[in-house]
Amino acid sequence: MTESAIVVKNLSKKFRIYHERRNTVYEIITSFFNKKKYYEELTILDNVSFEVNKGEIFGIIGRNGTGKTTLLRLLSQIYKPDSGSIKINGSLVPFLSLGAGFQLEMTASDNVILYGKLLGFSKKEIKNKLEEIIKFAELEKFADTKLKNFSSGMYARLAFATAVQVNPDIILMDEILSVGDIGFQKKSHDTFVSFKEKGKTIVLVSHDLKVIRENCDRVMFLNEGKIVDIGDPEQVIKTYVKIFNQ
Predict the structure, then answer these.
(1) Is the pLDDT of residue 6 over 90?
(2) Is residue 184 classed exposed, middle or buried when 0-12, 13-18 and 19+ CB atoms within 10 A define those classes?
(3) Please, which pLDDT band fits residue 47 given cuts at 50, 70 and 90?
(4) 97 contacts 118 by C-beta, under 8 angstroms
(5) Domain ranges in the chain?
(6) Buried b (16+ CB within 10 A) or exposed e, 167-183
């Protein structure tokens, strides 16, 4: 019997979209007596249920704004669901907001140590990996440069190079294979392949259907917060293309 790495049941998430600000004391006080809503609720995920098997590469596709990134943030416990449940079997690392926690006034080396500690490494462990991380990021000449002087590409490379040092059971990847230039993208892809060869469970969000088709065991198609199709990559991609070519 196949073991599940992730089990999601009846998951829903809404966000409030505010239309007016209440800035004055009078507006704040009167708002308590005024039944008019100053916001609308936008449903991002609507009663979503699925499972990801251990060792599986599970792709998620859909247009922008369909709930893909929100779903990964729920799996990462960055967001809390409004209803439903999520069960994670194993350690999980999200490759989502790369570099969250980086300090612009600190050097690349100091940020690697800080970010590594946030990812669960001891100071000694991350210091032992420091040279390897800086080299992987192709930033040897900038190890002692403050991040405020980095380009967005350099910033992303440093964050990715640090994050891949973690050895989790489950990896969440949101368009991560497009980080940096062509050369670094190849490095990212090679790292992805090594995760795959080690039998890691990977949840991959991408707009690149070629990447999804070539790497995923199963694919889920989300549209307007609901699952449209789930199963064989070729079948699901055909459904996706058919709907948006109508």
Answers:
(1) yes
(2) buried
(3) very high
(4) no
(5) 4-91+168-244, 100-166
(6) ebbbbbbbbbbebbeee
